[in-house]
Amino acid sequence: MTRKSALLACVLAFANAAPAFAGPIPQPYYFPNGSRGVKINYALPAACDANTKAAVDTINAAGRSFQLTGTTQNYTSTYYSATEDPEFINIQDGSSMSAIMRTIIYGYSGPAPAQAIDATVYVNTDRIYYDTGDTAQSTDLICGSSITSSNIGQHIDWQSAMTHEMGHVKGMDHRTDGSTGPCLMTTYLNPGQIKRSLCSDERALLVGFYG
């Protein structure tokens, strides 16, 4: 079977109809100091919540003046806009996406770095395998407390992908030194690859943003 890398995506949606932007790290926005809650949509599998929380913890460990807090599975909306729930970063279900996960950032237009208003992370629900009752597909997202490089097979690691998306939330775009590799913010995550830690330059970037 052919190995296919999983695409990880980020879109910046600025107020005043500014165009979408994608570029190298860092991204042209920042969140004000303080904290922002995280909500997980009820439609996403509760079995993956612990991996999502671990992803948030990893990103919070770098750059402490802005923290993501209160990861809970209680978000019930099926539609999201920048003005609906701006005090929360929402993790939402999605489908028919080319990416396994993607992040949309809402922010004010203006010279970089502009202030971010909010963010939504979408998870491709067509690509989730988390339960032994499902038929596993080789490139499905997989989660659980016992997933390691020795037993993940050709699945896509949920926690690695979610940590990448949380990196987008806190201000990092994809790396410019290659689309694959060992660092968190590469564009692609290979089947069977586990990347749950920041590389030193990624950590330094977040510390530069948020102290």
Automatic annotation (TrEMBL):
Region forming the signal peptide: 1-22
Record's keyword terms, sorted: Signal
Domain of life: Bacteria
Listed Gene3D superfamilies: Collagenase (Catalytic Domain)
Keyword Protein transport: no
InterPro entries referenced in this protein's UniProt entry, alphabetically: MetalloPept_cat_dom_sf (IPR024079)
Name of protein: Peptidase M10 metallopeptidase domain-containing protein
GO terms for MF: metallopeptidase activity
